[in-house]
Amino acid sequence: MNFEKLQVWKKSARLSADLYKALRELRDFGFRDQITRSGLSIPQGGSILC
Question: Is the Cβ–Cβ distance between 8 and 46 less than 8 Å?
Answer without folding.
Answer: yes
